[in-house]
Every structure is written in structure tokens, then in C-alpha cells.
């Protein structure tokens, strides 16, 4: 994301954290903007520096989108183009 680099495995772990914390109560959905993976003790260490940035929510959103299940691992890499 920009000049920051993260391992694909860590990005997948981030997505699991975000997806797993979206629903706490079946009657209440937590909007993406109100959940911060920075508060999760399972957040991979390489994201700790992102938590100090004001644009952290947008960075985490973009990384989460990059790890969507319907993308091949090659296409999940921002440097890759032309898979589709």
C-alpha cells in the first residue's frame, strides 16, 4: 500500500481479524469505520506502525480488499496487473 510493504500472510490474517469482528451480536452489525484492528491483540506486528497513522482505517480497508477470497494470490499483489 503506497510505499509500505506487507507479507500476504499478514494481510490475510488482517482480513480474518476484520471479518471476524464485524459481527459481535447478531442483532447489531459493527460498521467497518468503528472497528480498529489496532485494538486486537492478534494483529501482526508489521501493522503496528500503520496504527500510528491517521489514514490507518483506509490502509486497512485497502489491504482487506486485496485479500478477497476471489482473487488469486498473484493478483492480490498490488504490483501485479492483467490477471483478468
From TrEMBL:
GO molecular function: guanylate cyclase activator activity
Keyword Secreted recorded: yes
GO (cellular component) term, any one: extracellular region
Primary localization: secreted
Localization, UniProt: Secreted
UniProt keyword Signal present: yes
UniProt keyword list: Disulfide bond, Secreted, Signal
Gene3D superfamilies: Guanylin
Pfam families: Guanylin
InterPro entries tied to this protein: Guanylin (IPR000879), Guanylin_sf (IPR036382)
Record function comment: Endogenous activator of intestinal guanylate cyclase. It stimulates this enzyme through the same receptor binding region as the heat-stable enterotoxins. May be a potent physiological regulator of intestinal fluid and electrolyte transport. May be an autocrine/paracrine regulator of intestinal salt and water transport.
Similarity field: Belongs to the guanylin family.
Name this protein carries in UniProt: Guanylate cyclase activator 2B
Organism the protein comes from: Elachura formosa (spotted wren-babbler)
Lineage: Eukaryota, Metazoa, Chordata, Craniata, Vertebrata
Amino acid at each position: 500500500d503506497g510505499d509500505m510493504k506487507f507479507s500476504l500472510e499478514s494481510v490475510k490474517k488482517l482480513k480474518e481479524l476484520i471479518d471476524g469482528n464485524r459481527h459481535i451480536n447478531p442483532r447489531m452489525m459493527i460498521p467497518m469505520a468503528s472497528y480498529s484492528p489496532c485494538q486486537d491483540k492478534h494483529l501482526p506486528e508489521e501493522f503496528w506502525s500503520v496504527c500510528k497513522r491517521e489514514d490507518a482505517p483506509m490502509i486497512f480497508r485497502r489491504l482487506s480488499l486485496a485479500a478477497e477470497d476471489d482473487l488469486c494470490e498473484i493478483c492480490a499483489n498490488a504490483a501485479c496487473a492483467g490477471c483478468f
